[in-house]
Specification:
- With about 160 residues, the protein is an alpha/beta fold.
- Helices cover about 35% and strands about 20% of the residues.
- The chain contains five helices and five strands; from the N terminus they run αβαβαβαββα.
- A five-stranded mixed beta sheet has the order 3-2-1-4-5.
- Strand 4 and strand 5 form a beta hairpin.
Length: about 160
């Protein structure tokens, strides 16, 4: 299965956007080729709530130019999700019936997918401490490999 990396317009980052037919396809097309973490979570999921702060810190540390982060609130109440994330720096989609989650073959929360060059490069099931974890080291290593390959290709 081929996946396209995700990104959003500035307006999409200001609040949760309802999940509507076709919206995720547009999102996928809008940033094809950009390294992206797609994180499926919910406010009713205790491990998800525990993981989000370290994930947001990691994304901020790595930087938007190197890695995009998309948060997908699954089967959640819009008001609770909006309240939890506040004014997110990173885009959030709302997936009330697991439609997008199922397309990523997500079966439990939290779950994070690394998309590189339009391909699913890694999946992390369960909560991770993004300050120091296998998930963090894997993402950084894959980003470094991608940078090294593109540097070699440009020589």
């Amino acid at each position: 299965v081929t996946f396209l990396a995700l990104a959003f317009s500035a307006e999409a980052t200001s609040e949760l956007k309802p999940f509507v037919r076709g919206s995720w396809q547009e999102v996928l097309r809008s940033h094809a080729g950009r390294p992206t973490l797609v994180h499926f979570w919910a406010t009713w999921c205790p491990p998800c709530r525990q993981e989000i702060p370290s994930l947001l810190a990691f994304a901020g540390e790595v930087g938007d130019t190197r890695l995009k982060l998309v948060l997908v609130a699954v089967a959640d109440e819009r008001d609770r999700a909006v309240s939890f994330v506040g004014n997110p720096r990173y885009p959030v989609l709302f997936d009330p019936v697991w439609d997008l989650a199922q397309r990523f073959r997500t079966q439990q929360l939290p779950e994070t997918h690394l998309v590189l060059d339009g391909q699913l490069a890694a999946t992390f099931v369960g909560a991770a401490d993004w300050h120091d974890s296998v998930a963090r080291r894997t993402v950084l290593a894959r980003l470094d490999e991608r940078t090294a390959k593109s540097g070699t290709a440009n020589r």
